Amino acid sequence: MTRVVEVRTYRLKRGVRPAFHALMEGESLPLVRAWGMDVVAFGPCREDADGYVLIRAYDDVAHLRASQEAFYGSEAWRQGPREAVLAGLEAHLSVVFALDEAGIDVLRKASLGVP
Question: Model pTM?
Fold first, then answer.
């Protein structure tokens, strides 16, 4: 089965990565998962001290759009970690592509970086 994978890269403000990682692990990603998004992998970039990556998988592009629209429009996100997450960002970029389950499983097992 082929699914849609989103790789979201973040350029963080200098020096905030440890706090950003703790925020992602402790607040943001549990909320994302509670909304039914499949978090494949996440973590700091190895080669960039201010980089961070989030990889999510969806059934298709319609599922991606509906999931993200519902999540990012929710009170839980807007009244929860949203402001703290945005405060740590300088920029972000998302790339979306199709990948089969075997490829997604490889990404799940990959070590993205070290906190």
Answer: 0.92
